[in-house]
Design goal:
Layout lengths: L3 E4 L5 E3 H8 L9 H6 L2 E5 L10 E11 L5 E11 L2 H27 L3 H8 L8 H26 L3 H8 L3 E6 L13 E7 L8 E5 L4 E4 L7 E2 L12 E6 L5 E6 L7 E4 L1
Parallel strand pairs: 3-5
Antiparallel strand pairs: 1-2, 1-3, 4-5, 6-7, 6-13, 7-10, 8-9, 8-11, 11-12
Helix pairs in contact: 3-5, 3-6
């Protein structure tokens, strides 16, 4: 891939050929980055928007950063501006449908069954279907149900950020566990070690224990922390959910690990 150089004076980028012929700088010479920097040029570093460009229109500014082993480079720092709401809804619906189709294809592939067989079986009475086929059909129905709920939720959104929360829910690391307080039914004080979202903050989330309908609020354990203040799980049922406070939508769910010291759980 050809290297380009950003010039801080002109605000433009130049190829190696342009650098040599217009400015007399040969970037093939070893250890020349500092010399290139001295002339106001910076090797362009690869970067991409970290947000959904189908929902947000990207723009960028240049930032000068250190590069290895010496010298400085230039990198595009992207920001997003929300697209018009109708356009964002249409794009989000397309994305959700494509993902559901991909998920369904994975289910079909993993079942080693053809679409024709599954279509035929789905027309039979439930009681007449072989159990192993019903498992596959149930997985496909779950994908379809989720898609329907997501499409309805997107249609009801009033902002692009709300749409993004559905199409691109947060990801990260929750430091959590159980058994550090009263015993295995007691949630440890938990907190995010990583939280990635352009449209939702940590404070807009909560933890929820479905087995006991226990809501654990953000900040309940101190700044940025969750605390159940005692047992919150039923014995043997340790499902824990991360939810969006405003809508109750489940961002992630997992079995809370038995670890009095706590551990990072990816979501």
């Amino acid at each position: 891939m050809e290297q380009y150089y950003y010039n801080s004076a002109t605000g433009q980028t130049y190829s190696s050929y342009q650098l040599l012929n217009a400015f007399g700088i040969d970037d093939s010479t070893a250890d020349l980055v500092i010399v290139i920097n001295g002339a106001g040029f910076y090797p362009v570093q690869e970067s991409e928007p970290d947000f959904d460009t189908k929902l947000y229109a990207p723009s960028f500014t240049w930032s000068i950063i250190p590069i290895a082993p010496v010298g400085e480079g230039a990198i595009r720092v992207f920001t997003g501006t929300a697209n018009p709401l109708p356009e964002a809804k249409e794009n989000a619906s397309i994305e959700l449908k494509q993902r559901a189709d991909e998920a369904t294809q994975v289910i079909v592939t993993n079942s080693y069954l053809s679409n024709e067989v599954l279509t035929s079986v789905s027309s039979q009475e439930v009681a007449s279907r072989p159990a192993f086929l019903q498992v596959t059909l149930d997985e496909m129905v779950a994908v379809s149900d989720t898609l329907g709920a997501d499409l309805a939720a997107v249609d009801a959104c009033t902002t692009v950020d709300e749409i993004n929360n559905i199409v691109n829910p947060p990801s990260g690391l929750l430091f959590t566990g159980r058994g550090g307080g009263l015993g295995p039914e007691d949630l440890n004080v938990s907190y995010y070690n990583e939280f990635n979202s352009v449209s939702m903050t940590e404070a807009e989330t909560e933890l929820f224990v479905p087995g006991t309908s226990t809501v654990i609020a953000y900040g309940s354990g101190g700044a940025g922390k969750f605390d159940s203040f005692g047992n919150c799980f039923n014995p043997g049922d340790y499902l824990l959910q991360i939810r969006e406070v405003a809508t109750g939508r489940v961002i992630a769910e997992f079995e809370c690990p038995l670890n009095p010291a706590g551990e990072d759980v990816a979501f």
